[in-house]
């Protein structure tokens, strides 16, 4: 057979020089640069070696990155000087080559920059490559902002690592609700079918807006107070289902009624047995934890749908850490669960005129409720499976996409997972609004039949809290 002509690479493929923090952030980053070449300075490998000890996420990622490199270099036919072809190891994701630094490089650095510093040695590698390949863009990829500023000051190209970012702008994050135009029924009501089933009314509408609808998205009309959830979509037709009105006292959930439209939407998701995964976003005081607990207690103690409530959260302190905490897992987690205690106080508040009122009644109610709520640490979640549990993940904005996957995949049969958070309050050092695990799941789960999402808008805590959230 005649030999196939070699595919010529485009002349302008870039060379990406990787800083250590990129490998420690995403061990599979070597496969994320498509047709471009990747260069690893020797100091990157040195730093990777220094960080591989320990049980932290960074140490795990450093070890994983080292293993990935080892697998690539294990083949006998690999010539390091010629570069390692990434097409095979990356399962056809990348078509560039990986180069390792095989020679001592001593490029000229401006006076005053100490050559003993690792960052500066990586910068000297970038300068060397720029001189060696004058026609190709040489770009430093680093998660370190100061490193990027320094490289730009030296007239070098530098970029952040963007591959793990779900969204560039969190303003376009799916909100779970859609305001319908005032002429909605005029444009979509022609040939409409309507029927009733289990005290709910269904509307089958056809029109230009229907292809934009997502399953389990809430739609509403301001003028006549119409609210519904999208149950099915198929081309230009959609089926809308009316909601249970939880703003009415007769539909109170554990004594709690919805105070606004979004809270009503949230309770419809939390109390729907067909929905296994719920995400609630919103600033402080919008009622995320209170609604979730009220719905959880109703389904655990009254309808017996779940065996117990499990609550967990990331333990990232806002101020200085207070050192080791004494006691069992539950006791160590107690200081982190102030939000749980505050909300339980509201939910167990019994009327003084009721026959079950008074201190005895309150104490008994509180004990029964506490026996059904378990507080667990994230550190011991791996390998577990939860059966018929109502799992609440509080402060979920501080989770990485990988940690979020670890938690959500714990769900066994009959388990409901609820993620709560405010992406404007991220305390984890290396996470941004665009790369948070909460943003990740909201974006990936939208439109799935058994999941729902609501962004709560209005604060209901107090006029002081609402004003502070706006002006501070």
TrEMBL record:
Write down the superkingdom of origin: Bacteria
Cellular component terms per the entry's GO annotation: cytosol
Show the SUPFAM superfamilies listed in the entry.
P-loop containing nucleoside triphosphate hydrolases, PIN domain-like
Record InterPro entries: P-loop_NTPase, PhoH, PhoH2-like, PIN-like_dom_sf, PIN_dom
User: Which residues belong to any copy of the PIN domain?
Assistant: 14-149
Keyword annotations: ATP-binding, Nucleotide-binding
Similarity field: In the N-terminal section; belongs to the PINc/VapC protein family.
Please report the name of this protein according to its UniProt entry.
Phosphate starvation-inducible protein PhoH
Origin species, per record, is Azonexus hydrophilus
């Amino acid at each position: 057979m005649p030999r196939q002509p070699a595919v010529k690479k485009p002349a302008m493929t870039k060379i990406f020089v990787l800083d250590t923090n990129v490998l420690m952030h995403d061990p599979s980053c070597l496969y994320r640069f498509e047709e471009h070449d990747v260069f690893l300075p020797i100091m990157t490998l040195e730093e990777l070696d220094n960080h591989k000890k320990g049980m932290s996420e960074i140490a795990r990622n450093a070890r994983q990155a080292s293993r990935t490199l080892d697998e690539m270099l294990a083949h006998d036919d690999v010539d390091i000087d010629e570069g390692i072809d990434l097409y095979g190891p990356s399962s056809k994701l990348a078509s560039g080559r990986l180069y390792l630094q095989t020679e001592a490089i001593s490029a000229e650095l401006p006076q005053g920059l100490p050559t003993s510093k690792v960052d500066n040695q990586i910068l000297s590698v970038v300068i060397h490559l720029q001189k060696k390949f004058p026609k190709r863009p040489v770009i430093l990829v680093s998660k370190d902002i100061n490193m990027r500023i320094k490289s730009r000051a030296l007239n070098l190209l530098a970029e952040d690592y963007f591959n793990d970012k779900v969204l560039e702008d969190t303003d376009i994050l799916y909100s779970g609700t859609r305001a319908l135009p005032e002429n909605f029924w005029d444009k979509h009501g022609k040939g409409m079918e309507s029927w009733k089933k289990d005290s709910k009314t269904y509307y089958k509408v056809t029109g230009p807006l229907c292809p934009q609808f997502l399953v389990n998205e809430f739609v509403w009309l301001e003028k006549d107070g119409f609210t519904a959830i999208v149950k099915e979509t198929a081309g230009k037709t959609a089926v809308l289902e009316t909601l249970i009105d939880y703003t009415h006292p007769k539909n109170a959930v554990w004594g709690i009624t919805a105070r606004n439209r979004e809270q009503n939407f949230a309770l419809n998701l939390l109390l729907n047995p067909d929905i296994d995964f719920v995400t609630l976003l919103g600033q402080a005081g919008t009622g995320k934890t209170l609604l979730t607990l009220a719905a959880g207690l109703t389904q655990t103690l009254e309808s017996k749908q779940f065996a117990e409530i499990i609550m967990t959260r990331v333990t990232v302190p806002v101020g200085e850490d207070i050192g080791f905490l004494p006691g069992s897992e539950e006791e160590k987690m107690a200081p982190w669960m102030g939000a749980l205690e505050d909300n339980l106080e509201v939910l167990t508040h019994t009327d003084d005129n009721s026959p079950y009122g008074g201190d005895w009644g309150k104490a008994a109610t509180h004990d029964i409720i506490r026996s059904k709520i378990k507080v667990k640490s994230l550190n011991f979640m791996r390998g577990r499976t939860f059966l018929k549990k109502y799992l609440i993940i509080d402060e979920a904005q501080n989770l990485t996409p990988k940690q979020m996957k670890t938690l959500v995949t714990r769900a066994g049969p009959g388990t409901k997972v609820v993620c709560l958070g405010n992406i404007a309050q991220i305390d984890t050092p290396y996470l941004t609004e665009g790369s948070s695990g909460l943003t990740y799941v909201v974006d990936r789960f939208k439109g799935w039949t058994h999941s729902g999402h609501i962004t709560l808008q209005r604060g209901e805590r107090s006029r002081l809290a609402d004003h502070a959230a706006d002006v501070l």
